[in-house]
Amino acid sequence: MRGIITSHHSTESVLMPPYRPPIAHLWRGLIWLIALFFATPILAAPTHIHAEMIVESGGKAGETVTLAVLMRPDAGWHGYWLNPGDAGQGMTLKWAENQAKNAGKLQYPVPETLPVSGLMNHVYAHDYAILIPYTLPKPAQSGAIPLEVEAHWLACTDQICVPEQAVLSAHIPISTTPSRDPRFDLWRAKLPAPLGAAATFTSDSHQIRLKIALPADVLLENPHIFAENNRIIAYAAPQMFSRLGDNLLVTLNRAKFQPLTPDTFPAVLRLNAAGDGLSFTAKPGPVPIGGTPLAVTSANLPSLPALLFAALIGGLLLNVMPCVFPILSLKALSLAKSGSDERAARADGLAYSAGVILATTALGGGLLILRAFGAQLGWAFQLQEPSVVIILLLLATAITVNLLGLYEFSIPSFASKNSGQNQNAFLTGMLAAFVATPCTGPFMASAMGAALILPPLSALLLFAALGLGIALPFLAIALIPPLRRMLPKPGAWMVWFRRILAVPMALTAVALVWLASRLGGDHFALWGAIYAALLIFILFKIGRQQQLGHSLTKIHYAGLAVLLTFALVVIPKTIQTPTAETASILASQPYTEANLAKARASGHPVFAYFTADWCLTCKVNERVAIEREDTSKAFAKAGVIVIKGDWTRRDPAITRYLTAHNAAGVPLYIYYPAGAEGKQLPQVLTPQILSDAAR
């Protein structure tokens, strides 16, 4: 037998006061009249969230049954979770005195997030049921137990809120064979399931960090932590999630002006957009550092064909980015040498393409492996290593003197059998890919960000598609004769052209010396320059041998190997603290999660940009659009707070931020209007873009 259900909204009778002498008590009557005038429309106002109490089944004395307060919001209205967030109010129940001791804790379904004007609320914008365990009293009453409770809640839209209340009543049948309301199965499925495993937390003045035992195969889609303790965390601040084996690591920003740390941290972890969740209570304990950051899941990504196309187009566009210009000139010269020899041109183009594709795939595979072991890395991670920069410096030096004619590069006879030209093209392709990786451009950013969260095979296909895009122009010229015939005919001009191409390559070497100083200090850069000079001397001696018609022996190659080995062993020992930041027109704060959260909470617009000294696209944007007087004035007028994330050296916090914005590398530009979510700006900036954002 199902419970009898009734619901009625409470009202209060407004009585006229007794008659008083008009002179002494006229003011009292006037107040009553004013109160009656304003109270009448409020009492008559319609309810926007309709509530009723439902009984799951009957029971015997001493048993616990389940009640439900079913809430039905009107369209455009919402109710609140037990912790409403930055604004709002959850439900409160006022039981009769003899019933309050039998009612258990309210059990809420997993809520939704509602960001409004820089605030974060925890709400329900659809029908929802709050479950209440209720223990039947002893001795049992005959027939049915009547219940009556006064409920208060807040009903809101995005613009207004209305406090509402109702007296809810029901009857619990006393029965040995009770029938059940099947709706309770659906409502229980909406409750967060108990975690059933340990959770720990640590806290300081800026953050609360959680370790939640969660198997690695549990799929997370846009996870969120709902803290039960009020005003402990900053609700609107970004929440950082990362995986470390079978543990989920979460970083939460502390609420402002909240110095106290709770003894326990009860919360709900939302797992996905469907509303599945886990409830847990974290206790003080160790929380490890690291893990693989989570941003989005593959369920939220475009299809794999669309991502492959984006990677291909992104790689193609890299050919016009500043970071690849010096290497492209080498390939143009190689194709011009091929002349009308179709077979040689085709083999050259295929070898070059193979080198590019292999390099991008190998770099991507290395990145995925290191991230799987917990390293906080992103695209172009190799240029954050000082030793890699020294290798590139020596390589750029060798290419420069080769273009100047001091020596001719050749594959050793013991390593080549009539395929030296093809191997040369292959190595040039690998070099082109290696130098191109510091930059991200249109289309490429989304594809590379997706590669960090896709299964390994799909991710490697994206890295290979990026390499194919880089190689595509020269591959097309090599395979399509009409395009190849458009190139200039081989001739004496190529000697001068080679010397001209030595200029950008020499500038690249100089830039690498500067980058070495930024990564490892001035002494580190000085030693790198000394070894580059020694390399020039050795290559000059090799060139003299070539000019005399003497073939190179294994001794010459051994000498080069010894020089490179000593460079990699000795130079890293000279690494010191990097040099200080250079002066900037645009006053900025260094990026930390706390600095960004504080800036966003200040009520001012925030411009967060992420750069690196090895990213030429970043430097071009800074010179063209960011480090300008007019940009500085526009930002000052609008009160914009500037946050700069320098990713030249490895920084796990910046890597987490990039990953959270589905970006595999720099540049990344995010503009936060006052009290609003951030908007990602294009990767190629103009002064007008920043001025318009500030306005």
- Put simply, the count of helices is 19
Stretches where pLDDT is under 50 for at least 5 consecutive residues are 1-44, 296-300, 412-420
| N- and C-termini, Cα separation | 66 Å
State the secondary-structure class.
alpha+beta
Helical residue percent? 40-55%
Could you describe the largest sheet, including whether it forms a barrel?
9 strands, mixed
Q: What is the tally of beta strands?
A: 24
Quaternary structure state of the chains depicted:
single chain
Query: How much of the polypeptide forms β-strand, as a percent range?
Result: 15-25%
Q: What would you report as the Rg, rounded to the nearest angstrom?
A: 35 Å
Mean pLDDT: 79
Question: Based on CA inertia axes, which overall geometry fits?
Answer: elongated
